[in-house]
Amino acid sequence: MASQDASATDGDAARTAAARIVLPRNRRTESSEALFEVDAPSADTTDDLGVKPAVADPEAPERPQRRVIQGDARHIPLDDNAVDLVVTSPPYWQKRDYKVAGQIGQESDPAGYVAAMMDCLTEWRRVLRPTGSVFLNVGDTWKNQSLAGIPGRIEAAAADAGWLIRNRIIWAKTRGMPDPVQNRLASRHEYVIHLTPQRSYYYDLFAYSRKYGRAGSTANPGDVWDFRNIPYEENSSLWDEESPISKVDWNLENPGDIWDIDLERNMARHLAPFPSEIVQRAVTLACPLVVCSECGRPRERVVEKTADLDASRPQAKRAMTIAREKGLTAAHIAAIQATGISDAGKALHVQTGTGRNAEHVRQLAAEAKTALGGYFREFTFAPKRTVAWTDCGHASWTHGTVLDPFLGTGTTLNAAYEMKRSVIGVDLNPVPVQE
Known about the structure:
Helix content is 23%, strand content 19%. The protein has helices at residues 110-127, 150-160, 205-212, 276-286, 314-325, 330-339, 347-350, 359-372, 376-380, 411-418; strands spanning 4-5, 19-22, 35-38, 66-70, 83-88, 128-138, 142-143, 146-147, 164-172, 189-196, 258-260, 290-292, 301-305, 384-389, 397-399, 401-404, 422-427. Helix 1 (110-127) crosses helix 2 (150-160) and helix 4 crosses helix 10. The longest helix is centred in the first third of the chain and has 18 residues, at 110-127.
């Protein structure tokens, strides 16, 4: 279930008004989305730009719980719908023998390994809440001078079993173990596969992008050329009404699926720990801070674009000054944001709200663009802010819960617990977890 964005999903400028987010107590809507009750002031009664303070993150009243279970990842003694997120790194096929009865990873062929992992996924689906996710870190194995294709085999089997493969994230190791091989390139990446049991799931890209942002991947600098400090000039080649994003890509809010993460030094007796940053990223994206202890519904953030621009940038400061001098209202700013950078040409095909807004929204946007000139773009790409959190009405909250069915050294438990989530670890031979 993606974060609620109240900025312009239906192109209605009234979305900038204060909203009370209400979820029905006794039934779910077909889309499982929040219901909004909005009291919108009219444009002629709004005397400011609608700058709103950010709201604090929700908290559960008690401390998060920590639990370690000695057991099999395929048979976990937990109730149905008990966890919000699975983050784990199972033993890789034919890599290490842990000398434990019932272990996964020593099957005679890839098909046997994939079958064991599918048994795991079946069990994890049972213990996951409907809004839950799995982040599965799995590497490949060289056998007879060929890759076995393990990650792809797992993805194909999971898809056949009804799982949605939402991402194949590349964990790019900025440093790797020495590899003496001379007839192929050294392996410097693994996969983190994001799977969900259904289409609607908890996902907080807003928090993730603000934590990792453009630093999320440095393997390739990316295709964003930042021209925001170049003054707007009429007829400048940098500003093209017909191609709103090809010349200037302002969308920095989705850092992408390459994670540049170093291996971590770990002196524990477990042979294959994986980095805590993988856990931190997965938890930030897919485990709610709190969920309702009665209905299990997560609290989700509601974000809006704001008119509170970065005044340290001359163009942004000038845009805010003009807006106030011209008497523009919150409704004007919301109309600009609903319309996008252009309401004609190619924009009609690439922008969600373009050409689909109500007549009064288009009129407000036209007034604002006339007043601001080229500076209207500053508001179009304004930063977003958390303005509310969804509320099911039960007022009974508990921490989101992270499960690692292959506990290992406890990396997942330690990292998630530090992020104020309850944690559960399962292992056939659990290593004592650092408190």
